[in-house]
Amino acid sequence: MATMADVARSAGVSVATVSHVLNDTRPVLPRTRQAVLDAIEELGYAPNALARSLVTARTRSIGLAVSAISNPYFTEILQGVEAAAVQQGYGLLIADPRDDPRHEREVVQLLHERRVDGLIVAPSADPSALVAYLRRHRVPTVFLDRVVEVPADGPPHFDQVCAGGAEPTARLVRHLAELGHRRIGLVAGRPGFSTTRERAAGYRDGLRAAGLPYDERLLAHGDSESAGAERATGGLLALPAPPSALITANNAMTLGALRALRARGLSVPGDIALCCFDDFAWADLFTPRLTAVAQPGRESGTHAVRLLLERLADPELPARTVRLTCSLMHRTSCGCPDPSEAVEGTVT
Fold it and tell me: Between these two residues, 128 and 50, which has the higher pLDDT value?
């Protein structure tokens, strides 16, 4: 196995020069740099990542803490993070915080102790302990999907990437109202998540724009999971005046709502219209095909890596929040006629 000394001899330079080329710790003449790179290629030299980390104080690794990795949306995020990280020469360490604040704090500390260069985290509903740890240890971090409230006493402390949630939800409400529905229910996510707050706010905005009253009994929390949504949907259907249309606030809850409807022998959209937040690969394979808001999962992951690497390169950059655009996949579960193909409409 070739060593750094072998590369130095082949390129006719010192070992220190080879180190500077590999670690980018000092300017090297282009001709000399190329000679070193040619020698590395010819000899098949593989730098020792551990040794390099001792020189640069960097491990070229990123920690990713995201719950419910089995969720198709978070799988897309993971794919985006991994592809962007590998493209930039970074490895990925993954942990599942389980959407539990205490466990979240523990796994983030574990990733930090593994000396990752920075973290990408989808925070829980109560990230106070997490934020305190990250601030205390000055860990470069990007919050993903769920944003953390900007402190009242100053600028935000972390970069954040998320998709807009309010307007797409309002658009679903307005569309259902245009189809004649007057009692539109929402199966919302877990209380405390920023995504839950935004989609509930969009639900109310949509009702207001359509001239419909807000009835708190028509908003039920499915806790962002299938079983919770099945229970929440059952509660909505048991109301004296149940909804004639339903919006589910993520894809896991869509499956739970469909189970509740099937258990009661209700058809979509014949007995009840259904729209959902989060598109997934088989949404247009259902009968009827699901009208859904598609979030840019891979793009979110890619943006998170970009923001983190920019933060590592310049720790003094002002904190940034990037909001990405969703797309409406208009299909037939809302009660519209079956179009020849899905029509995409951009919403923010």
Answer: 128
